[in-house]
Batch of 4 targets.
Target 1
Amino acid sequence: MKDALPDNDTLYHALLTRDGAWEGRAYVGVTSTGVFCRLTCPARKPKQANCVFVGSVAEAMRAGFRACKRCHPMGPEAQGDPGVARLLKALEAAPEERWSEARLRAQGYDPSTVRRAFQRHFGMSFLEMARQSRLRLGAAALPKGKVIEAQMDAGFSSPAAFRAAFGKWLGLAPGRFAKDALLRAELIDTTLGAMIVVASAQAVHLLEFTERRALPGELRRLYDHAKGSLGFGRFAPTDRIEQELAAFMRGDSPQFTTPLAPLGPPFAQKVWTALRTIPAGETRSYSGLAAQMGRPDATRAVARANGANPIAIAIPCHRVLGADGALTGYGGGLWRKQALIEMERAYAREKTGVEG
């Protein structure tokens, strides 16, 4: 359950002082302008009488407010936290670096504050994110050489530590990935972070952000489904989905025509098919999607299938919101769901011819 907001006086004081503690937890709608902002927005502060405080972007939008063009409240929330932004930039510049609490303290950060901020924005700590960054380097090296070379690229001090960390991340030890496999996994970069694609020569079977907690289980299921024929590399569908993702995130096209073959039971397959009928720029509730499928009694089952979707973005589970319009339940992180919905607003404006 979402925490209740405090009284308006407390939130107005937070607005005046640009208190970053409320980042992603509260927003202000300004009735005199029709705009909603982060509480850290640098714009001139409105009178308290003109302020409406809400707990989510969706709530602000449902109340008829439009996003501020200075603080971009519909953008990834992490961009509004300077400490998070600096650490992300450092990690991007040197993904092979080993981070620790001692190193964070030496650079002037409080490890507990950093941990809370990253957990709030990304659902994982900064140290876990840095560790995954090094593991991705190792995964990229595996198709080109031996495990020992991948371990060195990832900056692990021992093969055993690398194998254990890699197995925890992807659900399979590096030595279990086969050569010349029927299914091949490839890491790709997107503007919303690294993703892993698993494809056959005919279709994409999995597309996930690399820190999704369900990823190890999903890869193990594909491994079992392929009777162990899962390796590293790419097929033509990998290239095609990568190109379509890039076009989508540039704002060029919301269309995904790459053949998709997600692994799942029949009811989940029906849900995933229904998700693909939601146009870019539109959203549905779980109950609305269930009704659309002719199963108004299956809202919970629809929600479970939505959460189990193994193909992010191309099967747009991010277009489904809670009954109250809240940005609930997204395995890639709510900040990404928020960013995807904002990206798609441009497609909706294009379709209607309305200027934003």
Note: The chain is about 45% helix and 10% strand.
Target 2
Amino acid sequence: MEKPKKVTMQEIADRVGVSKYAVSKALSGKAGISSATREKIFEVASQLGYLEQKLVKRAMAGKQQAEDEHKVVGILIPNIRSQNRESGYWGKVLEGVFKGLETCGLASVLITDDSPRNFNMIMRPEGFLGIIGIGLIDTAMLVELRNVGIPFVLVDHEDELVGSDSIFMNNYDILRKQVKYLIGKGHTHIQFVGDWRYARSFADRWSGFKSILEENDFSYSPNAALLRVKPTTDRENLDLILTSFSQLQEDGLPTAFVCANDKIASLCLRAMQQLGIRVPEDTSITGFDNDLDVALEFPELSTVNAEKEALGVKAVETIMWRLDNLHMPYEKLLLQSDLIVRGSVNAPRFSEAVAGQAQ
């Protein structure tokens, strides 16, 4: 069987229409290349298998040394968007990673800065077996990891420019199940709350929401303002929710709100309290994640039990599998989850159901 042809920088340069020097600068993360050209170079390099070629070469040369002397897995969780150990969501994912690493007898180092420059100043790439990335991670950092040949797996995140193994909850299917439950309770006027562009998991939940309404021939006019709501507590975000809900009260309150996650649902519940909207008497509401922090404040919130610890454990299993299967295609793994129905959901009042059908 013939060996795969070695891809060169010159081939990449010819495909993109730039110099070999430009390709070298782009792939090494150096300045002086426009972002558009850098992205094109990286896209072509990925398509030709150049980056995977570098990864395999590095692994074959240094894997044994890493296994014998280092046995360190980096846990990359940038301290942004509440991605930290104190979070009721991300903290549980981390616990799962630590549990998986302990089972494998592997040491770890926690990295909270996704700047390639800082990473290279402090860390020795040859000291890593692999990296487990948790949450949103900057593309430049993922490019750097690929450039230095460190295998990595991403939890609750994926990057269109940098192929990798990734692990998510099955957001699409469980959101469909959640909306099916609401429809079964008699809800026909349902609004989605959350910026679906915020994260890939939000986008999948939004797609699941729309698909089940379409299958049931429900006419749906999304509230544009509610589709801009982010899981943050800044004043502008809270004002957006209050203004939107005030308008909906005047025009006809939906019988149910499906929120992109529990944090957004908690913001909505606070706004409803201020406006005198009763749950579930006036409207129902659901969240997603089964966030322990939110449950302390709103224990009656119906939600989806995202298996956070299982995400972390599966990430460790995946990075270990990848180390032994560097030539295999990347995988996207989806973990199943369950609905948790609590007191925030009830059948709609008849008058509201009729109003929803009319719209």
Note: The first strand starts at residue 72 and ends at 76.
Target 3
Amino acid sequence: MDAKNFRVERANETVRARTVDALRNAILANHFKPGDRLLERELCELTGVSRTSVREALRQLETEGLVEILVNRGPVVAVVDELAARDIFEMREAIETMAARLFVQRASEEEHRDILAVLEKCVESARARNRQEMLDFSERFSEILFAGCKNGLFANLYKTLRARLAFLRMTMVRSQRDDEVAKSINLLNRIISAIQRRDPEAASLACAERIKDAAEVTLPKIARLTERSN
């Protein structure tokens, strides 16, 4: 990822919010790797904003679990080890499976149409092996799902996990094998079918299978990354 992409334009959004987005994207794109120190001076040069904005952004990313503040080292990119990743997958399974059930029961007709369209795009991007589109549409699926389930608590829990889930998704798709992609497509099609039939139990079960599959693929990769960083 080119460092010039981190420049922050001072537009309608607050400088702080745009700085958070720029640094989050840099971490998720692996420009800053787990364990890397995040030096304020360098971040100011990369983004073109003040130290105050950088500090505020780092605090926000700390709440999202992407940054850790270490004694005598300062801010570093958080290391998501296998145990932490397993915890995240377990939490995701708990809230997403219930959100899927509630979505089928409570979502508007427009939300049903939107989520089916996004799921179809997920399948298309997976077949084309377009990693960035796979990530983008997967995140959009989650956004519609948690908005449409009409449960504010689940939506808030998803927001707290969002950045770490994005990191795990990226870890999964970066080196997916053909058989793993084929299985992912099959599971996406099961979710599509369940939502089309307005079957809450089937939608919940299909989402659970998709999450378990993602964990099986991702956790060994996280373990290898952790070993290399030690």
Note: DSSP finds nine helices and two strands in the chain.
Target 4
Amino acid sequence: MRIRLGKIQDWPFIDRLSKEAMADSIASWRGQPFKETLRYREKLLKEFRRWVQRTGAKILMAESGKEGEAFSIGYLVLYLKAEDELTGVRQGWIMDIGVLPVWRGKGVGTALIQEAERCCRDAGLSYLGLTVTSSNQRALNLYQSLNFMEERKMMVKVL
């Protein structure tokens, strides 16, 4: 496995995996039909792609296979110009991360995050943040194993 910078040609893979992995990030008590959520996600991904290009966010791609025959197995979108909303301190921010289901639990997410950490250190940043759905236990376990700490909680009430 290797990590490389993403290219415009990687967007179909990112779009596909982002939509596929979305189910892991939706709270089980949300009652919206999945088709509606998917339509919203597709619209959001188009805007997200433009935002990445406009801001210069980095796309990190995980690949497996021999050089010239490599195939994508995961991605991470890293924004190096985020500011903490309470302190104003600049930090890196993981905007999105996805790993193909058959590659989960095999170190792909760890490798992507470690590369994101390296990018942050190279940019002179001391912090790397992300958000995660509290019911996504697999992701929570990964982030905790990499020493991410819980800082805030976002809470929602069903009305």
Note: The chain has a mean pLDDT of 92.
